[in-house]
Write the structure tokens for this entry.
Amino acid sequence: MGKKRILSGIRPTGRLHLGNYVGALQNWVKLQEEYQCFYMVADWHALTSDYENTSDIKSNIDAMYLDWLAAGLDPDQSVLFIQSKVKQHAELFLLLSMFAPLPWLERCPTYKEALQQITDKDLRTYGFLGYPILQAADILIYKADAVPVGEDQLPHLELTREIARKVNFLYEKVFVEPKEILSTVPKLLGTDGRKMSKSYENCIYLSDNEKTVNEKTREMVTDPARVKRTDKGHPEVCSVFDYQKVFTPDRIQEIADGCRQATLGCVDCKKTLAKSLNALLDPMRKRREEILAKPDYIQDVIREGNKRAAIEAEKTMVEARRILKMVE
Ligand code: TRP
Ligand code: SF4
């Protein structure tokens, strides 16, 4: 019996931050043991909303591969590829589009929410409406058994299963209905307590050096009611504590008690956190150096990944064309 398959993707947002790491990447690294993994940069998906300016995509992709490899994605085990370099995704996207009723797409919660909340670009495009079909093509083309995703992506996975079911029912059972693997780690907020986002400049990046991590940690917001060192704190309202839960889990009781009884000060608490973060990031820093010392390494990984992905994608397309009786 071969390993089960996983596919997941991320849009090329550039350098990855701690939120990306605990929300996805950490999980991706772990899953490599048990599954055959396909991890993809969804650069066409980036275009669905950012079609007016694509100038960052290329450098974002390189930065992301570097983070992937530094964090422990292993190109010998997993297939690390770029969506737009495997043209079969576009072909399957087109074919699946024929089967996707407009109401399925129009009632998709991510779509409705984006139209409401994002007002600085025109998202009433054909491409943006079709976002989940492209995602379905990404998944179905590898016959992935499972997809590691955040909660926000569940509607897209449901749609993927519905489209797979429809084609399987009308023609022949070619597509696999994928399950979700939900990330269990709670969402990390930014260092200022707001949503973690590049545009707020409140992220700690995997590529930050030790000094930067120390500085950013020192400036994190804490329990606003704890003004003096002798004031008792409320860890449950403190974002430093949220980070400690994730990054210093084995000392969490001691930290909570110390905070509540004012035996632990915020300065020391933050030093402990910075230590935990640097302990996590240090091995990644080392690997990053090693990778950067090999000039063509990343480009080779990308090329090899694209090639391996295309071979698997083409196998499914041969079947898809056959059942739909497309001319050969
Ligand atoms: N839509 C996903 C996100 O924004 C990215 C993505 C594209 C994806 N294709 C995928 C995730 C296929 C899982 C499977 O996070
Ligand atoms: Fe937050 Fe730690 Fe200060 Fe308590 S001691 S308020 S948990 S930073």
